[in-house]
From TrEMBL:
Start and end residues of each stretch annotated as Disordered: 1-70
Gene Ontology terms for molecular function: platelet-derived growth factor receptor activity
Record's protein name: Platelet-derived growth factor receptor-like protein
Species per Swiss-Prot/TrEMBL record: Cricetulus griseus
Pfam family, one: Ig_3
Bias type Basic residues, positions: 46-56
Amino acid sequence: MSLHMRAIVSSPSLESGMCKSDVQVAGQQPPKSKRPKEQGDNRIKPTNKKAKPKIPKIKDRDSADTPPKSQSIMVQAMDGGRFQKPAATMSLMAGQTVELRCKGSKVEWSYPTYLDTFKDSRLSVKQNERYGQLTLVNSSSADTGEFSCWGQLCNGYICRRDESRTGSTYIFFTEKGELFVPSPSYFDVVYLNPDRQAVVPCRVTVLSAKVTLHREFPAKEIPVNGTDIIYDMKRGFVYLQPHSDHQGVVYCKAEAGGKSQISVKYQLLYVEVPSGPPSTTILASSNKVNGGDDISVLCTVLGEPDVEVEFRWIFPGQKDERPVAIQDTWRLINRGLGHTTRISQSVITIEDFETIDAGYYICTAQNLRGQTTVATTVEFS
């Protein structure tokens, strides 16, 4: 082979660009349309075009800004010692034992609140060396719901959820004569807040069940149009933008396999008070008191019906351990047009008023959204 031919073979750029017709077989005449190459001919024609530099593509998984892809760490224990990944939704007969495992040395679990509320002994959650294990025996339709797990990323005693290692499945436990997930009461209250969704929790135990929503009076079916109200089999009927026209008594009806069932009834109450820290006022029975008289100071909060309020008091005789009586109460009230409000009150009472009882009475009311502090003075007359 000539020096010229060796240069062609060893050049990567020419080798990659050479097609089958570029190779000349010995003894074969070149095509008439092409003249034979002379010694020193350049096989690459000169061009004035500037070559654009190739920028290597960066794969998504190599990008620091892209979160790691989540992988399911959950498996279900089957008969014969086999394991398989559970589907997003499963239907099981009530009475069956369910065993779920999630890979990891630190695994947290979430499961239907019914099992947690009653500290059910049928449920067992264990952490083994390489996996977490959840076992539910003698299952019932009341256990229908979401079972999920996630790994923990820990730095010392501080741990956070690892979003890249999770697993979940929603299990329908089908039980004869139970189309709805049983409710602990025969009548329940659902509060309609104008600034958030409200849910009528008509959940079914049969995946194929047809569920409708009905008003008790006037008796009629409430249309589920996907705009104001939708049905979510994992939650129930969801009011997307609740308003006062939605209030009243409703119930759900389920049909499956030629059978039908009516749910418990739900009282829908519209809430007037917006979300936020407690709206608090304070009032003393008298701001000037004679020695030996009794005095009471009342702290009042108007708030959402389902939001609890805690009270704390600071009073003049506190450092001297002055005996006082403190009583907390709450009730629901209607404030016109069916608007429902929760009124929470705390009253502090001092008997046989003394000099040390004069001064500032400070009340702090707190809920999940914040706290409000108010004060009033009581003077010795």
